[in-house]
Design brief:
Chain lengths: 219, 255, 220
């Protein structure tokens, strides 16, 4: 493996690498943020929704979680164009990963809320807090702290899932890497590079997560 | 003679098919300290929890300071009042629980100010001042920035009491507040309660601590199978029990 | 929207879909089986006192867990040939999935090993067993029973990951679904059926595994 050759080629391709990297970040960030927001709604629906809503959301969650995320991406890409919703490959892919993320976050929130000891709800009631106040000041702060490590883990999963969009033609980092390789045939070096960049992204997310954990920890 | 602070009339409550309260009548005047004793299953905790509407009840009325709480008669049918009204009714009383139930993510100070800010709508400084006064009263001002996880059981219970009392309730409810504590921590909590009683706080205390009930109460109630078995001043009840059930109970409690 | 649902196109090729599902299951089983060996060795390495072993295992696990599996799949299939390692599609995928599984199983087994009472190993040594024999006859069997739920979860995850084999044209379920989709334009039907097949497969596998967990679990 000729390292100087690799560096040379990498420099030549730096524009494409940077664009691919940005695209990966865009896909991941969008999917994580939208997925988390939707996930909170899902989680709340599972805990507080009234029976038909809970059933519907439960089916949604179980269906999505039983399906490989790759299938979700492909289905999203192919189905949406047919039924007249004109979405770009990027949008379809982000939608699929967002849905995927929402079910993970939903389950996390459901678990965390269910685990809060009933006595606290009673204590809040006893002081005269309404349900809304109890939820805002007692339940959610604890639930969010609880799920932080798991959520960070899920976020890294979404970054990894962004690579699936390469299959539907979105020029994120993996596809860009493959395009570069098709020109200079340095597959070993460039796949390594791609892997390394993903590693750095995931590692940074984990580090950031641990930082946030420390800041919001009590005692 | 002022109107009674608390009136319970013909209180009935079921859990599914099991009737747990079979018609309880009770009157409590301001300043009274009423201890409620009895074996498990006698309904004493359930009755307490009906007073602050943590439990629903099926028949009867509860009136606090002239206001009937929980339910209303509309068009011949009994309805539960809307949630916002229920929340207000609950704020008329303060409750301390056997398992403390402090909010683990908040400091001792914030545990106490939460209700003041959200329910009594106070400003932060005002609330903090009141909270600190009560934390000082229970001897924990120096721990105001600690989280519950950093406090002992006795300390947590005292913070819980401060939290309830800082809301300025008309009536304090104590639900077996020392049953979950290590024996050496029980006294610090009991002396706080005694202190508050001496200041004239109206209290309902469900307890197993017979000596304490004897010392602090103006009246003792013995609950037996969902009804009041006997009631009267402590000296009467403990020294001259009139029913066999109470006599047995006192003997078994090694009082 | 002018789309009429017509499942015939899908039913016609249902046997293909089914064979794809079967292949996916087979790939998952082989990978988790082989991956378990890697995982066990790496787990023991991670809790050993030898810094070198710990370092190697740690690097392996961290590298694999932080790399998207698709990158690993492409790397093995396209880049390894440069080293003269030329594998067929299925072998390449199994190779990748095995090492992928190994990394996740390492964590599972490590947790399981740490949760074992220290007395177990000492009891084995006390009756005269060698370290190796103790591991084989005592530590591993007990530990595996304890981690069965985690193992089941990993297996189901792995099964879903077999869908990625389609990216290198391995004829598993997703590959055939896409083929049907592209050939017949029956977009909704093909993907719905494929999705439902995965969902039901996962459900039955989970139920089956739970049943075995209960049978194999240490009583009490």
């Amino acid at each position: 493996m000729d390292f100087s050759l690799f560096l040379n080629e990498a420099w030549i391709a730096r524009g494409a690498i940077w664009d691919g990297f940005q695209m990966t970040v865009a896909i991941s960030a969008l999917a994580i943020i939208l997925g988390t927001v939707l996930g909170v709604v899902v989680g709340l629906a599972l805990v507080y929704g009234w029976a038909p809503v809970r059933l519907f959301v439960r089916i949604y969650v179980d269906f999505v979680r039983g399906t490989p995320v790759f299938v979700l991406v492909l289905a999203s890409f192919y189905i949406l164009s047919i039924i007249g919703i004109q979405l770009s490959a990027f949008q379809a892919g982000v939608l699929a990963i967002t849905v995927f993320c929402s079910t993970h976050v939903g389950e996390m929130i459901r678990g965390a809320l269910a685990a809060i000891h009933r006595g606290q709800i009673e204590a809040a009631k006893a002081i005269g807090l309404t349900f809304r106040q109890t939820f805002q000041s007692v339940l959610m702060p604890q639930a969010l702290r609880q799920i932080l490590p798991t959520w960070v883990n899920a976020a890294t999963e979404m970054v990894k899932a962004s690579t699936l969009l390469s299959v539907i033609g979105v020029a994120e980092l993996l596809l860009s890497t493959q395009q570069i390789i098709s020109r200079n045939f340095l597959s070993l070096e460039f796949y390594f590079m791609a892997g390394f960049i993903y590693f750095v992204i995931d590692f940074s997310i984990e580090r950031f997560g641990r930082y946030v954990e420390r800041k919001v920890a009590y005692s | 003679m002022a109107d009674p602070l608390l009136v319970i009339e013909n209180l009935h409550k079921r859990f599914d098919d099991l009737e747990v309260l079979k018609g309880v009548d009770l009157t409590v005047d301001a300043g009274d300290v009423v201890s409620i004793i009895g074996s498990s299953g006698s309904g004493k905790t359930t009755m307490l929890r009906c007073v602050n509407l943590l439990e629903e009840f099926h028949e009867g009325r509860i009136v606090i300071d002239g206001e009937e709480i929980g339910y209303t008669q509309k068009g011949g049918k009994r309805h539960m009042l809307p949630n916002s009204v229920i929340a207000r009714h609950r704020a008329l009383t303060g409750m301390a629980f056997q398992t403390f139930n402090l909010f683990p993510h908040l400091t001792a100070l914030k545990n106490v100010t939460l209700g003041l800010i959200k329910v009594r709508k106070m400003k932060k400084d005002e609330a903090a001042e009141i909270a600190q006064r009560w934390l000082d009263r229970v001897g924990l001002l120096d721990r105001q920035d600690h989280h519950p996880g950093q406090l002992s059981g006795g300390q947590q219970q005292r913070v819980a009491i401060a939290r309830a009392i800082a809301m300025n309730p008309k009536l304090m409810l104590f639900d077996e507040v020392t049953s979950a504590l290590d024996p050496e921590l029980v006294n610090e909590v009991l002396s706080v309660i005694k202190d508050l009683a001496n200041d004239g706080m109206t209290m309902l205390i469900v307890t197993h601590e017979m000596q304490f009930a004897f010392d602090v109460s103006s009246e003792v109630i013995f609950m037996n199978q969902g009804k009041i078995g006997e009631q009267g001043p402590p000296s009467e009840l403990f020294n001259n029990p009139k029913t066999t059930r109470l006599t047995e109970f006192i003997q078994n409690s090694s009082f | 929207m002018d789309y009429r649902l017509n499942f015939d196109a899908v039913w016609r090729d249902f046997d293909l879909l089914l064979s794809g599902l079967g292949l996916g299951l087979g790939l998952a089983v082989v990978s988790i089986f082989l991956g378990s060996f890697i995982g066990l060795i790496a787990a023991f390495a991670m809790i050993s006192k030898n810094k070198l072993w710990r370092g190697i295992a740690m690097t392996y696990v961290t590298a694999i867990r932080n790399t998207p599996i698709l990158v690993l799949i492409f790397f093995t299939f396209f880049a390894l040939p440069q080293f003269g390692v030329r594998l067929g599609k299925i072998e390449s995928f199994v190779f990748t999935l095995t090492f992928y599984a190994g990394a996740y199983l390492t964590e599972v087994f490590r947790g399981g090993l740490l949760a074992l009472p220290t007395g177990l190993r000492e009891a084995g040594l006390a009756i005269g067993m060698t370290e190796f024999r103790t591991k084989l006859s005592l530590t591993i069997p007990v530990m595996i029973r304890n981690v069965l739920p985690a193992l089941s979860n990993n297996f189901i995850s792995l099964f879903k990951d077999t869908s990625l084999a389609a990216a290198i044209a391995v004829p598993e379920l997703t590959f055939y679904a896409r083929q049907i989709n592209v050939n017949t334009f029956r977009v909704i039907e093909s993907w719905t059926v494929a999705s439902l097949m995965y969902v039901f497969a996962c459900y039955f596998i989970a139920a089956g595994l739970r049943h075995y967990e209960r049978k194999l679990a240490i009583p009490g």
